[in-house]
Design a protein that fits this description.
Elements lengths: L5 E8 L13 E12 L3 E8 L7 E7 L3 E6 L1
Antiparallel strand pairs: 1-2, 1-5, 2-3, 3-4
Length: 73
């Protein structure tokens, strides 16, 4: 996917719980953002971009093997 494209992504996220004997399962997650990097292994999104001169961005890197769906929006 081209850098800067706005996308909706469904992906499987891990769950964790310390000191438990309960069964854990991954959970289906949703993210919306702009593509920063799209490689064979990673889809990196900016989910918040700040419009000042700081260049600060809130980001998420999703392992491609966990991705169920990517839709351009």
């Amino acid at each position: 996917m081209k850098k800067g494209t706005r996308v909706y992504v469904q992906w499987w996220d891990i769950t964790a719980n310390l000191h438990t004997d309960e069964e854990l399962n991954p959970v289906l997650a949703e993210s919306v953002g702009w593509v920063l990097r799209d490689t064979k292994k990673v889809l990196e999104l900016a989910y918040t971009r700040y419009k000042d001169k700081s260049g600060v961005t809130d980001k998420i890197a999703i392992v491609k093997g966990c991705v169920e769906e990517v839709e351009e929006i």
